[in-house]
Amino acid sequence: MSRRVMYGLLAVVVVSFGVNWPVMSAGVRHISPVWMGAFRVGSSLLVFACMAVARGRLRLPPRSDWPIVASLALFGMSAVNILVFTALQIVPPGRSSVLTWTTPLWAVPIAAVFLGDRMTRSRWAGLALGIAGVVVLFEPWRLDWGDRQVVVGHLLLLLAAVINAAVSVHIRGHRWTITPLDALPWQLAGATAVLSLVAWLTEGAPRVEWTPLLVGNVAYQGVLVSGLALWAQIVIFRNIDPVSANLSMMGVPAIGVAASAVFAAEAVTFEVAAGLALIVSGVAVHLLSDRQREPVDM
Asked: What is the pTM of this model?
């Protein structure tokens, strides 16, 4: 596959992930948040299970990989889906996409504590820029602290970002026996089971009035974004310099803000634009300081 095609595929992935934010926001208006997560992960499971069968790679992971499979299923997929879809009932999708994109910032200090990574000046600077962006997005000088829902919604998104960061550090620190791509069907299966159980216990049986538009919404999230686009991202990260690929992925929150303005009529305020600029700058500073990172086996 030529580099031109690879970068074209990267552009498709960035746009797909970015547009997914208003799609998710629209979905939770018709499906309760935990069931929305279950349907999304379940449809993604169908994609990756079929891919694994077609490749002849659907086999149970060895015991040494069970901890990372459980970590991704319980935290990276189940907990994050619950937090994000719950928050999307409160926080506009564009703002949500930017707050969730703070994941790379929190991964820096977590890796310093658990993996012994050194906190360089550039990493401290990137973290400071990102935190400044979060503060601007929160708008504490305007936030109605008496409106508990608004405060909780923002905190849920930040918690989802921190959990994602912790899982990403676990992924980097784990000694893989199988590739992450081969582990995905099992992670998705575990997350589907957990989300379905939690949804049944907390929200009862799913009460959904399925329409062609809603079916398309779930299919876009699960099959296209969490399935095919995620697979494409794995392919891209195997074939493109990781710093370049990660820097390109910073277009996701920008597309998320733009798509939310177009499809969800979300106003792009100065605070949203400034917060996005600061967070993206912080992530960029971190990534550019990390050019010596060795690529991982996908």
From this structure: 0.88
Collapsing DSSP to helix, strand or coil, 207 comes out as coil
Contact 94, 266 (CB under 8 A): yes
Q: What is the pLDDT of residues 238-296, one digit of tens each?
A: 677 666 676 777 788 889 999 999 999 988 888 888 888 988 888 888 777 765 444 44
- List the alpha helices (DSSP H) in the chain: 3-27, 33-55, 66-71, 80-87, 93-100, 103-114, 121-138, 148-173, 180-203, 212-219, 230-239, 242-249, 251-263, 270-288
Residue 29 DSSP SS3: coil
Q: Which two tokens stand for residue 172?
A: 């980097």
Query: Residue 64 gets which letter from DSSP?
Result: G
* Cα–Cα distance for residue pair 147/143, rounded to 1 Å: 8
User: Alpha-carbon distance 220 to 95, whole Å?
Assistant: 21
